[in-house]
Design brief:
The chain folds into three domains: 72 residues, 2-Layer Sandwich (Dna Ligase, domain 1); 112 residues, ATP-grasp fold, B domain (D-amino Acid Aminotransferase, Chain A, domain 1); 141 residues, Succinyl-CoA synthetase domains (Rossmann fold). Helices cover 38% and strands 27% of the residues. It is built from twelve helices and 19 strands. The strands form four sheets. Strands 1, 8, 9, 10, 11, 12 and 13 form a seven-stranded antiparallel beta sheet that branches. It has a six-stranded mixed beta sheet with strand order 14-15-17-16-18-19, sandwiched between helices. Helix 2 packs antiparallel against helix 3. The two termini are 23 Å apart.
């Protein structure tokens, strides 16, 4: 599961890594107010789940609130590598003296976390790795042993960090590794870790969570996900939207897709007791996501009634602007009535979650 930059920075700040003053905005007026509040030149950063934003115009600078409003309006009308911009992080412009690179990844070839660090940071880190790999410090952490702050300071020394920054660099390396563990990450990265007159600060933040560990990250999904109305909603990098009534059932649906070779595009939990209006809103949310090829609606009726689910589905399919395949697993309270409604509307359904997931994967692979 990919995490937006603004979400990653919230997590970094919470876990002892300094980040710039910033504010998330969803329109030009909000961007202008954010720039007024920050009261200095700002950076407007498109919140999309792709890399290389700065090279394709996804990051821009504004010297005053009026410019921030104008630039934000332009960004909100744009796409970055196929992703529509619907959120912008307005952030203080930093007086950067130099840049470091820090990353923690899982090296599956040796089954160990790997810390990669360099005093050469910035957007061209891949070029540095290719042309001057000796500038990258690599340190494997034994997963069966604790990683101590003194080891992080040793990495800073090996990087060649100036003496007055060794302690702070070590603390940030140590905190980055601890949150990598805490959030079951596959990558936790700061590029660049900027040197400013006040010290070090994470100018950018990247955090990807292992999909297989999402069952341990319920708080992350609930509190860090993009909220759509009353739903817990997370956009992922697959092409099958998953909707379920309950976090556990939604995660089970995602796991089942993966078992059959598919990949989830969304996590959307409608919760218990969802009405037909809620079902309709949830379907419209995922249908509007243009990465979604197929919708997998996984409902086990308890408080949520199957007939309400069926009515919500019928309402959406009759009026949706975008027609995409819908696979429904529907069973539980009032299931006979719900299944009758679907049958009369010519909408197929499954009772088995396994069959529904397999069908969703088959449909997506043929599109």
């Amino acid at each position: 599961m990919k995490i937006y930059e603004y979400q990653a920075k919230e997590i970094f700040k919470k876990n002892g890594i300094p980040v710039p003053i910033n504010q998330l905005t969803e329109n030009g007026q909000e961007a202008e107010r954010a720039a007024e509040k920050i009261d200095k030149s700002v950076v407007l950063k498109s919140q999309v789940l792709v890399g290389g934003r700065s090279k394709v115009g996804g990051i821009k600078f504004a010297d005053n609130p009026s410019d921030a409003h104008k630039i934000a309006d332009e960004l909100f009308q744009s796409e970055i590598k196929g992703e529509k911009v619907d959120k912008i992080l307005v952030e203080e412009k930093l007086d950067i003296e130099s840049e470091f690179f820090l990353s923690v990844i899982m090296d599956r070839s040796v089954r160990k976390p790997l810390i990669i660090a360099s005093t050469e940071g910035g957007v061209d880190i891949e070029e540095i790795a290719r042309e001057t790999p000796e500038k990258l410090i690599k340190y494997y952490v034994n997963p069966l042993e604790e990683f101590f702050p003194y080891q992080a300071r040793d990495i800073a020394i090996e990087m060649g960090v100036p003496n007055h920054l060794i302690s702070q660099t070590g603390i940030i390396i140590w905190n980055l590794f601890k949150l990598f563990q805490k959030y079951d990450a596959t990558i936790a990265e700061i590029n660049p870790l900027a040197i400013i007159p006040q010290g070090l600060i994470a100018a950018d933040a990247k955090l990807d969570i292992d999909d297989d560990a999402l069952f341990r990250q319920g708080e992350l999904i609930t509190n860090r996900s993009a909220k759509k109305d009353e739903f817990a909603y997370v956009e992922l990098d697959g092409d099958i939207a998953v909707i379920g009534n309950g976090a556990g059932l939604t995660l089970s649906g995602m796991d089942m897709l993966k078992l059959y070779g598919g990949k989830a595009a969304t996590f959307l939990d409608i919760g218990g007791g969802a009405s037909k209006e809620n079902i309709a809103r949830a379907l419209n949310i995922v249908i509007s996501n243009h990465k979604v090829k197929v919708v997998f609606l996984n409902v086990l009726g308890g408080i949520t009634r199957a007939d309400d689910v069926a009515n919500g589905v019928v309402n959406v399919l009759g009026s949706a602007e975008r027609k995409i395949p819908l696979v429904i697993r529907l069973t539980g309270t009032n299931e006979e009535e719900g299944q009758r409604i679907l049958n009369e509307s010519g909408i197929s359904f499954e009772i088995s979650m396994e069959k529904a997931a397999s069908k969703a994967v088959e449909l997506s692979s043929n599109l």
